[in-house]
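As described in the Methods, two query proteins were run sequentially through the folding procedure within a single session, without resetting any intermediate state between them. The first query and its resulting structure tokens are shown here.
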Amino acid sequence: PMLEVWGHSPNLSRLEQTLYVAAAAGQDAQLLLDLYHLHRGGSKLSSLALIAGSAMPVFHLNDYPDFPLAKNLTDADRVYPGDGSADVPEVLAVMLANGFNGALSLELFNRAYWQQPAREVIDTGLEKMKHQYELALAKTAGKS
């Protein structure tokens, strides 16, 4: 089982709430984090530096626009990594520095993408994820 941050939820909408529950659950607690939900709930992305990569077997990678405001975003506002306002390479670099070697999962509910052929969405998503990951690797290499 993994504990997931849900930015729209009345509880567990922020990273610090989820970390509290994970700490109370014990050392076997695993986190399923999502860039969109971290932003949506108002979590500080810099807090990811507190989390060991081994505690995150999966990370939902996506992005979000500047508008609407975080509290008004819906799942349908998610965009490809790098197409929004998140500093995706920095987020990934922080995770990699803490030993993240889990799976990156593209999670999009954007209705505009539903109108496109599935293969096109898959290929575009994978290409954009790889690009953001390469940028993150370059950042981590520069910090060594």
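Immediately afterward, the second query was submitted; its sequence and tokens are:
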Amino acid sequence: MALEKVSDFKERLKIALSDDISASDLATKISMSRQAISAYTTGVRIPKRPVINAIADALSVNPMWLLGYDVPKEHHLENTTEQQLLTKQEAAVKIQDLLVNKGVIPPEGDLSNEQTEILLNYISANADFLKQLLHGSK
């Protein structure tokens, strides 16, 4: 079962920005230019995963929600361990980032629904190994 994409990054970013922070404040908070944030809100550019994660953290929203997926917007860290927050979909994003960093998949390529399903099945079958991998254990 793949996640359903119900919006896009630029629309979700506009919603998140209208909630409690200006684009200029966001730019300052994540050490980017106001022009870069503007390019993201207009859809001229789509940020790479590390920037998406930084924006999501700065806005206290779920990165998967920011990408347009049908998941809860809020991404609360208080009273919740990182392990509890790590849903299968978030794990898939982290693993995709690892694969991009290792050069296994191209950085501009999002996974197809079929590839995402395969990755989610792999995550389920190899949960303990992946927890160590994702948390930096060697």
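The longest helix spans residues 88-101. We note this only descriptively and draw no conclusion about the first query from it.
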